[in-house]
Specification:
Immunoglobulin-like, 2 domains, mainly beta
Length: 244
């Protein structure tokens, strides 16, 4: 197939009220021929990518549709993607694959042939534009999503991802916190003001000596349980540092 044929690309299904002015769309045309210049007939399977609302108010969806062409004359009017909204959530474009069936044109037998997908970024235009001015050989890159913070961090503050909230949260540090609980040689359970996240980030000191998780104590949420032989005695000092 020749270059004009190979350049045929995406179109889309537009949901609109009947009677909308043609000036609200951009018309894209092409002449589809075989290598010998014989005009061809066929169709394109069209699908919208990145559903959007056009400036016309139409909602462009991703349901595939068919655009047929005959005698080499291809023409379609599309809602422009450069005025689409919301612009920050995804890049809007059109995607299409096309095909011509077995046919005899000008005494030549044209074998079945298909091409695509191609990708179109359609500008706002009051004049007809050619396929070459809208076509891309690969999809446009998608923008990096902006994920909101649950609370506003301060300058220099760390943040962490919360899978439960699907959002970023500021990281808070607790330094040299005295765990709550009686230090009497009998009580083995002490509590922290918050649950260390991650749990392995807890630094627990008894009289200035680091305690080892699993050997000197265990941690469940914000509860520290000292193991036998490591229970703090009267006069001992406990300090904990962690992030949450």
């Amino acid at each position: 197939m020749n270059r004009r044929l190979s350049k045929l690309a995406p179109v889309i299904l537009l949901l609109a009220f009947a009677g909308c002015a043609a000036a609200q769309t951009t018309t894209i045309t092409a002449t589809i021929t075989d290598p010998m210049g014989d005009p061809l007939s066929g169709s394109c399977s069209v699908q919208g990518v990145g559903g959007f609302t056009a400036a016309t108010g139409w909602h462009v969806i991703g349901a595939p549709t068919a655009v047929r062409f005959s005698g080499g004359a291809f023409s379609v009017s599309l809602a422009p993607t450069d005025s689409a909204s919301p612009p920050s959530l995804a890049v809007q474009y059109y995607r299409v694959t096309c095909a011509v069936p077995l046919q005899i044109v000008g005494g030549h037998t044209i074998q079945p042939y298909s091409w695509g997908p191609r990708y179109w970024s359609v500008p706002t235009s009051s004049v007809t534009v050619g396929i070459g001015s809208v076509e891309m050989t690969s999809p446009p890159p998608q923008p990096v999503p902006v994920i909101p913070l649950t609370t506003q961090p301060q300058d220099g503050q760390y943040i962490k991802w919360s899978a439960a909230l699907s959002a970023w949260q500021p990281v808070t540090f607790a330094d040299q916190e005295a765990p709550g609980g009686a230090i009497d040689g009998v009580n083995a359970t002490f509590t922290l003001a918050a649950s260390p996240t991650p749990a392995t980030g807890l630094l627990l000191f008894r009289n200035g000596l680091a305690q080892k998780n699993g050997q000197d104590y265990s941690l469940a949420g914000n509860v520290i349980t000292f193991l036998t032989g490591a229970i703090p005695a009267p006069g001992d000092t406990l300090l904990a540092s962690y992030r949450y």
